[in-house]
Amino acid sequence: MNKIEEQIKRAEQELEQESRCLARLKNRKTYYESGERQKLTHRLTTRGAAVESLAPSVKEMSEVEFYELAEKIFALPEVQNLLAKEVR
């Protein structure tokens, strides 16, 4: 019976070690994913600020008005050409 108890104790220790390892991996995953979110948030914020600095009147627009303006701007042939050059 003593041998079985030792095996159980060893298995419980291994399970505890693996559980801690899994927790560390989950924490690392969350850290890397939040870093990507932070980069996205930073990029969107700086680009939004750039738009507002170039056209201060967009601050007063509703979200719908802003999207309508953006759609019209991005439909212009000159803008389409610039965007096509960027893709190449």
The total strand number stands at: 0
Number of helical segments with 4 or more residues = 3
The biggest beta sheet is recorded as: none
- Tally the structural domains: 2
- Rounded to an integer in angstroms, the radius of gyration calculated over CA atoms is 27 Å
Structure in a nutshell:
This protein has 88 residues and is mainly α. It is built from three helices and no strands.
Give a description of the structure.
The protein is mainly alpha-helical. It folds into 2 domains: 1-54; 59-88. It contains 3 helices and no strands. It is rod-shaped. The protein starts with a helix and ends with a helix.
Tags for this entry?
mainly alpha
